[in-house]
Amino acid sequence: MEFEPFLAYEASAGSGKTFNLVVRYLSLLFMGENPSSIVALTFTNKAANEMLERILLTLEELPTRSELSHIARLSGIDEATILQERPKILARFLRSDIQISTIDKFFGRILRKFALNAGLMPTFKTVQNHHESALLERFLNEVEVSRSSEALVHLSLLSDKRLSDLFTLLSTLYSKYKELNLEAYEGTEAPEESMVYAFELAGELSRLVLSKPLSERAQKTMQIESFEDLLGKTWLMKPSLEYWDFKKIYEPRMDELLREIQTAVASQMRRREVLYFKELLSILKLYIKSRHSMALQSNELSFDDITLNVHTLLREKLESEFLYFRLDSRLKHLLLDEFQDTSVIQFDILRPLIEEIRSGIG
């Protein structure tokens, strides 16, 4: 079997993906690669530790392991030679700077190497989360200084969320804000208010329909207490009211009103969308600013902070060629476990590394 330099392995759970990753890693070692030139990444500390333990155990027990024949086929080296070289490979592996870790820790190592380029101290601490109360206080201070308190209250009303729920939402969006267009609604005008008009039209339709003989179930569908109640009516999305519930009492005016209601509701929902996202994105910018300033002051970074800073370095501050020159061009192979769990931002960071490896012999 010829060694494929670029390979994606897709299979269901429990079908041997990790087995194949270990075989590929060890095959590279027996083919002469330095362990420090092979980056193997996964998503949890447990998975990274298990991968390291499995590679080490396989090397130690290789004469009796099923991986031996697979390594021989993949590397093109006969089993006798592999077993003869095994002690030397094991000793080299134990002495090397092993690059088996979580993707977060890998990004952390990159950021420490380029911390000053990112405006950070290389001695930063990695924390699971920032102190929530301190971050909330800094965020609210940022809101007050920027005179955005009214926008925050308006956002709370538009989304029907308490401040604590909004804070949780902002924290979630922070990890993905590089994927968002924060200026998407800049200059977008919200349509005129049409909620009252839509409700008035719905009232006219209701009176028209309820003036006719209807079943009790059909009558209930036309009892409209509020605009929010109107939004929950299944007939609102119908192309016509000439269907089961209203077929016997149908007249063209019913569909005329339905279309006017649908137009007014669509305009009102577009208004809500524009107003909501305008406020949300403006408040999110303040939250991002709060996170950045807190990280700088405390010299503590969460995993989200690290990932976003590395992305900024790669995409905005440094040329990828400079980055790889500083990494000593040691990284020749990338093995990524559970690739489907990679976020857009994580893949965007890894993409230049993958392209750099593909341009060489790795």
Automatic annotation (TrEMBL):
A molecular-function term among this protein's GO annotations: ATP binding
Superkingdom of this protein's organism: Bacteria
Keyword annotations: ATP-binding, Helicase, Hydrolase, Nucleotide-binding
InterPro entries: DNA_helicase_UvrD/REP, P-loop_NTPase, UvrD-like_ATP-bd
Domain UvrD-like helicase ATP-binding positions: 1-362
GO cellular component, as recorded: cytosol
Any Pfam family: UvrD-helicase
GO biological process annotation, one example: recombinational repair
Positions of ATP binding: A11, S12, A13, G14, S15, G16, K17, T18
PANTHER family reported in the protein's UniProt record: DNA 3'-5' HELICASE, UVRD / RECB / PCRA DNA HELICASE FAMILY MEMBER
Name of protein: Recombinase RecB
